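Section 5.1 Outputs to date
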Amino acid sequence: MPRPSPNAHVTALLWGGGLAVLAATAAPALADSPAAPGTAPTVVPRLQADSITGTVADTRGRPVQGARVLVVGTSTTVLTDPRGRFRLTGVGGTDRTVRVTAIGYQAQSRTIGAGSATLAFVLSELSVNLDEVVVTGTAGTVERRAVGNAITKIDARGTLERMPVTDVSQLMNGRASNVVLTANSGMAGAGTKVNIRGRNSLALTGAPLVYVDGIRMDAAQASGPAIQGANVVSRLNDINPADIESIEIIKGPAAATLYGTEASNGVIQIITKSGRAGEKARLNFTADQGTNEFADPAGRIPTNYARSPQGQILSFNAVDNERTLGNSIWRTGQFQRYALGIDGGSGPVSYRVGGVLQDDEGIDLNNRQQQSSLRANLQFLPRPSLTARLDLGVVTGKTSFAPQEGAGAPLFSALNANPLTAGSPSRGFFAAPPEVLYGVNDVFQLLQRTTVSAQLQHQLGSRFTQRLNIGSDMVQENNQNIVRRMIPEQARFYSPAVAAGRKDVQLRDARTNTLDYSATYNATLRDGLSSQTSVGAQYFGRLT
């Protein structure tokens, strides 16, 4: 019985508890192998396979990590390492076309002749979005024009460089067709309802699913303390625009193919910024300043009329009357935000850490949002075919609100002012003067949010890739609605029961866990025709 050749070897992959034999090959005998006694040595030529090596960099000379390099018409493909280097082996034939694609860059192709070659690609940032790479709605990265779903991609980094943006809803507003944004309130810290392709139900929310780096996040659009019976906070705005690289929106029920039936209203995928491997540490600081004001309140608050007991027609404008007395019903609120970030990379490791402090004052004296956030990610390549990424996000803050409707709202009292009571302690306001209304109500939300996630992406050979996402999003809300116990100067405007004060507390704890695995096999059927076959499994759990 012949013994197996000592040069034979078997390549195997152990993944998820299963052992799969992928290839078994026998190495050819070397030319200097000893011959059998009494026979002339037989010379066996070495197998010399053509190889294509090279580098991929951007226009600034920085290496592009994770760029996909492939030979058109074949399934031969690799990803660049942290230094932007790649190597394709076993590439035969003549007039071969090598194509490079990367997220955020314009694809580039080059045709070479037979034999081995060394190439240097310099990629330009995308100016035309035809070939941009997307991840939403697919099991892996793919060019947007090759996806059958309607996907909109928003370049957050470029938008923030051109104009100030205070929250995620402003980032999407007007930049994605068929995405309808409806403000819950004009107050600082209030959220926005998002509907893709309009509302589809009168009873259900119609809200899309929201993912951050592949992890589902709590994106409740009606959260926070109840104000006039409604909740106006959107958890979507917990993500600071300064941390976002891009936003991908998949529209319509086609999203349910990968994300389940809950995604029938669409999916919003938020991709955060990350560092670049091989790049020196870079520090970024941004300061935004602005104001919130009630433009021309005297012209927008109507003048009210009434007939006095003597038959005289009286007119009264609450804003003009307060100005005469040296008072102001509303203020000019200040908006300020400071963002500090550092990113870079060394060898196979890249990183980014960013922090944001935000203080936003509304026009009502009680309306203010104070929020701080920290987001960090670490990406490393244990080997060229394996990429690992860890993410951490922490958000804390306090948002205070003021009533906007009803007798307790300064706006309502000014709109319904009565000329007949202008000389009374109410100074003509419907319920009470503004200083009383501002002094008795305290409505606020305390927020603590932590998001942790990990992603593994593995490429086996030139055809098979697999990806694993695991993470958890934890939200803790403390919503309080307080009516303070009133002093006599305040109590005269209210009933004894209201003047005694009250306190309503609502605690909301929500934890969202995500486990997502997908695998993709690429096959070339013939020249110019290829296919992708994907399989996967998802687990989603929510604890409230």
